[in-house]
Amino acid sequence: MPELPEVETVRKGLSPIFEGARLIRIEQRRADLRFPFPKDFTDQLTGAVVTSLSRRSKYLLADMDNGLVLIMHLGMSGSFRVEEAGKKGGGGQPDAVFHHPKDKNAVHDHVVFHLEHPSTNRPRGKIIYNDPRRFGFMTLTPRAGLEDHPYFAELGVEPTGNILDGPLLMTLFTGRTAPLKSALLNQKLIAGLGNIYVCEALHRSGLSPLRKAGTLSQAEADRLAGDIRQVIAEAIEAGGSSLRDHRQTDGELGYFQHRFRVYDREGAPCPTHGCNGVIERFAQSGRSSFHCPLCQG
DNA sequence: ACCAGCTCCTGCTTGC
DNA sequence: TGCAAGCAGGAGCTGG
């Protein structure tokens, strides 16, 4: 499911209820997701107050007042939903309508965080992690030295903000023989891009996903860097893309999928002005690439 | 060092 | 209607 814009959307949704809350009880309903939970996972969390919720690449990071950081990754199909205490139906939407009628999906609710207001000890609600494919994971690590943690030590630049520009992209791509599609999916170069937004950025830039990364001109790199930042910013603004699994934490759909120009649009006319191409799909390093054979070089 | 391919898992969609 | 194959937003591991 989630690439950077979806994870950022989740962060924004969780932060009002998560930040400042005490984790009064944690239900860990199975021993592993993609990886085993750390030993004493629930013990280490119980009683801690979440001081901030941040994001790095596709990781969510909950800092706690005990000096630990809860690292959460949604994999392909992970999602959170919030049920606020004292709101109708337990807050948020009832389970039964959140994912599917009848909610066969409830068996995939793997972790439940029960929250309370630390000052009053009153219930604040719960946050539920659901993940049918279980490619997501959670772990704990000390905040001190977090940047040296294996998940983060080699992570590339964020495509948000203004760090990623043409000259930096040229530096990252120099000497690379991998196709642009693979290079942009490489989290050690740029962190947070996934299949959707790579396809979309390449189309905006008029570059073929098959083009060797090391062959970009400075002008092309300038354009691509700008288009990556733009498409990510627009997607965050739209609340991410809702295909199968992703929803905002209140159950609302993201709507960037309506702005896809190529992703999941095989056979559709190319939206580039004046281009008469038809969007094609092909497999590239095991993933679907969507592109217009006419306007993408 | 870099790169392509396979793999984990469940469930939805497609084609016969 | 049933059944099997194919495919899905990630990323760690293997082997070349």
Give a description of the structure.
Helices cover 25% and strands 22% of the residues. The chain has helices at residues 4-18, 41-45, 95-98, 150-153, 166-173, 180-185, 195-205, 218-237; strands at residues 22-28, 50-56, 59-64, 68-73, 79-84, 109-116, 123-130, 137-142, 280-284, 287-291. The protein is elongated, with a radius of gyration of 20 Å. It starts with a helix and ends in a 6-residue tail after the last strand. The structure holds a DNA duplex (16 and 16 nucleotides).
How many strands in all?
Answer: 10
Largest sheet: 4 strands, antiparallel
- Poorly predicted runs: 90-102
- Strand fraction band? 15-25%
Give a short synopsis of this structure:
The protein has helices at residues 4-18, 41-45, 95-98, 150-153, 166-173, 180-185, 195-205, 218-237; strands spanning 22-28, 50-56, 59-64, 68-73, 79-84, 109-116, 123-130, 137-142, 280-284, 287-291. The protein is built from eight helices and ten strands. The protein binds a DNA duplex (16 and 16 nucleotides) through helix 7.
Which short descriptors sum up this protein?
DNA-binding, 10 strands, 297 residues, four-stranded antiparallel sheet, 22% strand, alpha+beta
Write the layout of secondary structure elements.
Blueprint lengths: L3 H15 L3 E7 L12 H5 L4 E7 L2 E6 L3 E6 L5 E6 L10 H4 L10 E8 L6 E8 L6 E6 L7 H4 L12 H8 L6 H6 L9 H11 L12 H20 L42 E5 L2 E5 L6
Antiparallel strand pairs: 1-6, 2-3, 3-4, 4-8, 5-7, 6-7, 9-10
Helix pairs in contact: 1-8, 5-8, 7-8
The chain binds a DNA duplex (16 and 16 nucleotides) through helix 7.
